[in-house]
Amino acid sequence: MNRSRTTSGSNQFSRSQSQQQYLTGELTIQIDNLPHIAAAYGEAAAIIAEDVVHQLVLDIIGALGTVTRLQSGQFHVAGPRIAKQIIYGLLPTVMGHPLKIREDAFHLVISVTGPDFATRPTIASERSPWLGGRQQSRYPAAARTQWIAAYRADMAAAAALFKTLNDDHVDFETRPVRYAGSCDIILYHELCAGIDGHDIGPASPAAEPLRRLGLLRVLEEHVVQRTIDALCAAPDLRLGVNISMESAVLDLWWFNVCERLGSAPSVAERLVFELNGIDRLPATADAIDFMTDIKRYGCQIALDDLGPDHVPVWSAGAFSPDIAKIEARQIQGAGLSDCGHDALALLIKEAAHVSGLVIVQGVRTQSDSALASDLGCCWQQGPHFEASGTEAPGYVRRIDANALSRLLGPPIQGGGGSAKKLYRRGWTVMVTAAMWTAAMVALFICGLHDLRS
What we know:
With 453 residues, this protein is α/β, with parallel strands linked by helices. The chain has helices spanning 16-22, 34-41, 43-61, 82-96, 141-166, 208-213, 216-233, 255-263, 265-268, 285-296, 313-316, 328-334, 338-354, 366-374, 433-452, and strands spanning 26-31, 66-69, 74-78, 99-101, 104-106, 110-114, 117-118, 171-179, 186-195, 198-199, 239-244, 271-276, 300-306, 323-326, 357-360, 379-381, 398-399, 412-413, 419-420. An eight-stranded mixed beta barrel has the order 8-9-11-12-13-14-15-16, surrounded by five helices. A five-stranded antiparallel beta sheet has the order 2-3-1-6-7, with helices on one face. The relative contact order is 0.12.
């Protein structure tokens, strides 16, 4: 996966004075998957997509700045405080909602760069090595046809998932982390998103199409926002939320989240970011910077799935996590053999050296709980603790998604404590001249209304 090193500007992201500088200057907006759209849906679809994004950027920026089209799929934007409009308008609107052209529907992937910052490119180049012109002839037609079919299938899966997300049909389930032997001592509840009983977290099969397309961050930012909404609604609640290594870079995507956490320290100190996927990506400087800056708000960082088959403990030390979570299979193996027992004991001991607190996952029975406790790990999580009566305070186990917040761009606290509405929603575009114009006018009016309110 292509990744760029975020410059020193990301380290200043959490400071209010530098945050104002972060919002000024010039931006370059790039449609990262435009070649993919051209290959999978045709050149006409790519041209329409580029025109729609151009018009949407013009509508969002308005008289605040200037927009210049550069090379294919790239735009230069200049003007004061334009980044905030892009964050609240373009990114969630374009990436979270499909562009519809006749029978086809696809999502665009946008990255934004500036003098002191960048969003990480999220398109997996290995998925389309023949894109780019000169190398195309090296790949047989059968391989091209296979790639197009796979890409369109991924996009259809993503469109279906985001439709469910946009319709507020996602369920949120809480899974407690408890102290063994006590029904009252709860460290926090892990908040897990699902659809019809199926997990859609970053480690789930449902997330793989989003990861391949470069859209995983849209889902994760949405779930994090919902988690913050739940914390705001219940002052006694502590929640953990999963994010992937792909998302662990402090750039424009997290600006809204950081702004909310910075304005509500009592919320930030009750939020745990659980980082997944360290087995897929190394301990990058971006991820370490992300953890360091998130901790400044008062949040805690947990590393998920530690174990010889997933994340080696030695590699976790680079992150200096607050919490280490041992993968579920280890407790199951410990109950089957002396070798498994000794392996879990060693894993718990090593994890304690890299974090202040260790959690054993996958505890299914009282015997599992007793085994983990005997090995010195009393913080535990699993089906054994998810029986009736273990709900998060003030919440049923299955949280009503409609009761938590808006879909995208939830309110942030202004200087006087009043809520600001953020530009959100919207851009199903049917490609006829009349309907396209109507859609653009509607987006323009909604954008001005939300940005000024």
